[in-house]
User: Fold this.
Amino acid sequence: MKKIVLLMCVFTFYLSGAGANVGSLKGVVTDSQTKQPLIGVNIMVINTTIGTASNEDGSYTFEKLDVGTYTIEFSYIGYNKTTRTDVIIRPGRSTFLNVELTENALELGDVVVTGGYFSEVKNKTVSAVNFSAEELRRAPGSAGDVSRIMYGLPALAKVNDTRNSLIVRGGSPVENTFYIDNIEVPNINHYPVEGASDGPIGILNVDFIEDVTLLTGGFSPEYGDRMSSIMEIKYREGNNDRIEPQLNLSFAGMGAAVEGPLSDKGNFLISFNKSYLDLIVDEEETGGAMPNYSDAQAKLTYNLNDKNKLTFLDIFSVDHINLKYDNALESDLTTVYGSTDGKMNVAGLNWQYLGGKSGYTNTSIAHTYMNYDRDYYETKSQRQIFRNTSVDQSLKLRNTNYYKIGSNSALDFGFDAQYNFTDYKLFYGEWQDHYGNINPSIVIDKNFNSLKAGFYANHTFNLAANLKLNYGFRVDHHDYTKNTSFSPRATLVYNLNPITSFTLSSGIFSQEIPNLFLVQNDAFKELDAPYSFHNILGFSRMLTETTRLTIETYHKQYHRMPVDPRQPSVFILDESTTEGIFLQHETLVSAGEAYSAGVEVMIQKKLAEDFYGMISGSYSRSRYKGYNDIWRDRVYDNIFNFNFEGGYLPDDEWEFKIRWTYAGGAPYTPFDIAQSTQLREGIWDLDRINSERLPDYHSLNLRVDKRFYFTNSNMIVYLSIWNAYSRENVAQYVWDEVKNEQGTMKQWSTLPVLGIEYEF
Assistant:
């Protein structure tokens, strides 16, 4: 590792040389509603006298800017002023900054707002948080993992450092999904949990991301079949001027990327990443338990003309890990051993059509491929307990339309359809659950074909100059279960003045249970689709032009959740987190209920000069009612959490960042020690289901970045320290079946992460 870092530094120094350098800034300014170019937008480089205006096609250019970090301001009559921070100018390279401006429907009166540092997201006025590309890159404690970057938000529970599960307002990872450029990507992680959205290591290349918006509740009817959250990810376009390569080394692996033009009408982004620990550490030294993975991704953009654009997206990953029997015996906490292999590929094509001043449309078609090869054995008996060689495929068609009816009214509408054709090959060995029940082995060999389809409409209009109503519905149908869901949703926004607003949102969100359950028993097609009610009240106020206060209180009520009568206190959809896998069940009924409620406070300061920060906290409760009609705490119920995150940039070369998190201990069920010892299996104390709590969680993450500017290249070297004061956070208590005693599974201890990014 040290040799690799040293060689890269020496190579960079001798290849590039040092000196004063310049770069350029280019982009396009468009209307956020119609996507049409805006002509004559005033564009200023803050704290300088440098400025320009957008051309007839909305484009602008700043040539020969000194390298460094800039803040750019965009202003246009009739539109809200917008400011973009963290704009990095690099030597010999072009930085591209595309901006959408939003029409200003408010009478300013005596209130003057000079900010615009916070991005406005169309039709997402409630429970939406947006991050820019540079905010994503520099986040401490994330190692470029998009999911971990979100951990500073008050809406997310704190569960386990070793996984990047998004537990959004009490909802399980089953209830989330991701969209990249209008294409759904169900899981963005290596070693994914089948049927859920989480995993231990992210796939996406953060350098390709233009911005990310996390919708934590009350989202538009544009999105269906999810009950908790939507993450919208926008990939940037490649450089239209020249070929630009990049090398990187980080916690996630070592990789390379290249971008450049495609003729004179398009551009491309391509990257490849490979884990490297398996290359420098002998497999026998770790008993084979060494992650070996790689991933590749690409985006190609082609402009047919000024109205039609095609983009092609591909996300690919390969995973392998093998935990050997001897290594499992040496571990106090490993009750199983075996291997995991897998491949994932999502490929999609999106067509965007601009309809002039009336609106635009996006239509995408995508193919998702998931190949599982997992083989696991019980350590104490060496008998096979799980085998999965399934191939999960789906074709998805998605259409979204935006039509501007007038200056105060707009309509969103569209449809989506998904055809799933999966070859399930599963073996579940006989196992004893936490109740002491013996569950017989089952073999599943079935081709599972199903069709889901839905359509939606959403209308936005101004009831008054400062009062906006956003309302709509969606209808979804699943041909396998014959379930049809109607989901009305509405949001009311009241702007007290240009710096203060109130929001009220309510709606229904439905979701089919994972196919992995449906395929286990033909009778499960009779299960109802679970759904949840979201009710949200929000307050937002600009404290300064760069600092915003938001307060939201919410209540989510779940109905028709699947439960197993043989395990009446278990909440089935939480198995992906508690077990790391969905288990087999002989019987399921749609009788479960749950709720989560809380209040969240966040103060966020954008980088205007030399520092930025975010302070957030929440108080919440998340509970469920199983088959026995007893209300219990859900496994994600931290009750409270507090986050502080900030950074200091003394100049254009150094950055110092910090994130500190404190959260209440999650609930857990203690073992019945006597019965567990007798049966050599972890058997719960059934009188105390989720009645105890793990110790409170807290952790400090630090990061330092150093930029090096050369004649025609630049390099970033960073050191990040996770859990800097080595807090021994408990992940869970487990039963060591080999030693036949209770053990403690810890989360990560102090972990230094060194990274290098070299652009040339």
Q: What stands out?
A: Residues 2-16 form the longest helix (15 residues). The two ends are 22 Å apart (CA to CA).
